[in-house]
Amino acid sequence: MLGFFQGFAYGLFITCLPWFLIGMINPRLALGTLTPDRFQVIIRYWLTVPFIAMLLWLTSLWGGFGPSLLGWLAGLGALAVAVPLERRIRGWLMKRKQRRLEAQLAAEAARREQQHAQEASEKGGATLDPQHPPANADDVIRALCAAKERLIAVSQPQLAVQADRLYSRYLRVTNVLLERFDRSELAFERSRTLIAEVCFGAVDNLTRMAAQASGIAGVDGDFVRRRLSRERNSLSLTERATLERRLTLLTETQQHLDELSARNEAALTALDDAAVAMARIDTGRPQASVDADQALRDLSHFVERAERYGRQR
């Protein structure tokens, strides 16, 4: 075995120069990397491969055996086998990485599509255009348009979606209210006032969210985190304290935004409860003159008599 290693070292060392010359002419022929260049050829065939050959030769000397012909031939053909094999392995790894990246992108796209579908379902297909409010917009709808416009202006589209959701809930509960009550009834006016107050409270929350978000609109949180993680040791104490304070402001502001968003979620739930409760109210006159169960019993009895009448004939 030591003779094989010694012969392998001789053969490998001899092939360094031819492969170096081939690589200097065309690096793609002598390297299995995806982006070969002449500097890599120099590093590999002047340093790496000769060092490996020297190490094999030195470790095989202590046994006292001479180099074997099989080892020498294996050393001569080692690079001719290693370069294509390396190219195949790197290509396979790159394709595997590409497949994983494509799978991640597909999963992310599916997640975004599902999120958009959920948001569309939450909005009920009703979307506000702040620049062009609905023709029959009342004070609540106009206030929602103004709040959405402020949130979009401070680059908070994910918060502006709440205005659309409040708009759809307001339309739904208003339609149910119009179906169940007459406009002249006192209950109609009282219910509509309470619904408007809930919506105006949510609009106030949206306005506060826009005001707080405008204070951190020019702060790049990702940039601050990257600098603190990568350049922590090279930063001065003053600069580090400034960056940490900026990150603290971002965190505190985000917490306030989450609290206000949670209040709006409670308002949305209250509007849903109101729509369900009013939908259960039966204010119309029944169309049937008898109870439904009694009508079913009478119909069954009639069918039995009809069958009996047919047998008698």
Tell me the radius of gyration.
39 Å
**Helical amount:** over 70%
N→C terminal distance: 111 Å
- Secondary-structure element string: HHHHHHHHHHH
- Overall structural domain count: 2
Q: Major sheet, described briefly?
A: none
Strand content: under 5%
| SS class | mainly alpha
Shape: elongated
Write down how many β-strands occur, each being a DSSP E stretch of 2 or more residues.
0
**Contiguous helical run count:** 11
On the 0 to 100 scale, the average pLDDT is: 78
Q: Low-confidence runs (pLDDT<50, min 5 residues)?
A: none
Structure summary:
The protein folds into two domains: 2-118, no CATH class; 124-279. The protein contains eleven helices and no strands.
Short key terms for the protein model shown above:
0% strand, mainly alpha, 313 residues, single chain, 11 helices, elongated
Describe what this molecule looks like in 3D:
This protein is mainly α. It has two domains: 2-118, no CATH class; 124-279. It is built from eleven helices and no strands. Helix 6 runs antiparallel to helix 7 and helix 6 (139-153) runs parallel beside helix 8 (186-215). It is elongated, with a radius of gyration of 39 Å.
